[in-house]
Amino acid sequence: MGLNNVRGYFFMADDAIFNLWNSINFDFVHHLTGDSYENSTNWWKTEYGLESAKNILQTIQNTNDPKILETWKQFENGLKVNGFLKNNQTVINEMLSSRGRSVSDFFYIPSSAISYYSRIMRIFYEHKLFLEIAVNKFLKSIHHEM
């Protein structure tokens, strides 16, 4: 985003209310619900769910862009580190799972994570992956607090 001397960024949308008296650790991503809607299939059956996820995987498979490939590797490694890929699973299993969403009307991203957030969300956005699914996938790939 190019702002100097900023510790992080708040994202607000829709009908969110920002209660200033709530404590937030500004060193980590903060999300009100995190990945707690893991079994939700909302939005997955629309064109902005599984169809978009398949298009993302096809793009990743066909790209030579080093920044996209680096971001995707960081995404997959984050899923592994945070326990979302078991045994022989890969990022493909996670993307085709047809489950998981995160209500995304309010969250905080520290400056230390904004570059990765911007890159992974650009991939999701360009393929029209629904916001609540995209944020869920991002949250699974990084340490976050609720």
TrEMBL record:
Domain of life: Eukaryota
Classification via Pfam families: STELLO
The protein's name: Uncharacterized protein
Species in which this protein is naturally found: Caenorhabditis briggsae
